[in-house]
Amino acid sequence: MANNLQDTTTLNNGVKMPWLGLGVFKVEEGQELVDAVKAAVRHGYRSIDTAAIYGNERSVGQAIREALAETGLRREDLFVTSKVWNADLGYESTLAAYEASLERLGLDYLDLYLIHWPVAGKYQDAWRALETLYKAGRVKAIGVSNFQIHHLEDLMKDAEIVPAVNQVEFHPHLTQQELRSFCAEKGIQAEAWSPLAQGQLLGEPTIQEIAAKHGKSVAQVIIRWDLQHGVVTIPKSTKEHRIQENASVFDFELSAEEMARIDALNQNRRVGPDPDNIDF
Question: Which residues are annotated binding-site positions?
Answer without folding.
Answer: 116
